[in-house]
Specification:
There is one protein chain. With 320 residues, the protein is an alpha/beta fold. Helices cover 37% and strands 14% of the residues. It is built from 12 helices and 9 strands. The strands form 2 sheets. The chain has a 5-stranded parallel β-sheet with strand order 7-6-5-8-9, with helices on both faces. It has a 4-stranded parallel β-sheet with strand order 2-1-3-4. The structure holds phosphoric acid mono(formamide)ester. The site of phosphoric acid mono(formamide)ester (CP) has 10 residues, from α2.
Amino acid sequence: MTTPLGKDLLALEPLTPEQIRLILDTAEPFKEISERAIKKVPALRGSTIVNLFFEASTRTRVSFEFAEKRLSADTVNVAASGSSVSKGETLVDTARNLEAMRIDMVVIRHSASGAAQFLAERIESNVINAGDGTHEHPTQGLLDLLTLRDRFGTLEGRRICICGDVLHSRVARSNIWGLKKMGAVVGVCGPRSLLPNAIAELGVEVFDRIEAAIEWAEALNVLRLQLERMQAGYIPSLREYNRVFGVTRERLERAPRDLLILHPGPMNRGVEIDSDVADGPHSVILEQVTNGVAVRMAVLYLLAGGAPELADAAKGGSDR
Ligand code: CP
């Protein structure tokens, strides 16, 4: 089936601004479903979706599962431990066996960059990338865009700085592609050891000092310092990182304007972000999580062939 997004959602890099806008606009009417007493509409009744999570996740896995259930899809969760992957079965064999049971979509998180595309090229079901290695995390990028658009009205010309461990971050890559396509001006800030060498070639401003980034930006998207990779000596110590690059209340108080604060989670409180910022009045971190369900409902709905102009009507068909 041809959909406005094609067969799969693998990354934001190949999407057009119109496709991104379509997803965000489709998410809008779906937000209200999660506020109802009975959070369910029949839009995906009869569809079967497999969530293949081969890497740890709280937000993305639960958010996809809620999105699927709220659209009335049948869902099955598969993790690497406890499945035949732990006995050496390949990713493609796992997916083909699931397809033999007549599934419609696969949501996949995997530690290997390119795993979602590899799978999408080999199975007929729609594939949604829920984060692949250090490549992309497109639905996180989309929920960040929706949260910023909610607050700013438009992303056109807005200055958004992505702070921290950009080198290892799939969230950073999806944000850079998505924000630029929506007309935002994008900055990155972090120690040079945690910024990719050719980062400026992506058309972003590069800040070596967090104070300069805070002075420039209207919103900061603060990335998790990927502690599991820090043995490789990217930074001298966590305390030093917080002292030089931490997003702290004291630093934000010196800013010429109030900044929106985003973080994709999970957070290292007291490392890349202090608790009084994460829980402070300008934090939209939990709004991001709430918006994640609506964005994933929109992606599932559009890939299942749902008509964008009928999204509002689809939400009207409650199971009450
Ligand atoms: N933001 C995000 O991907 O969080 P999880 O790893 O908990 O899914």
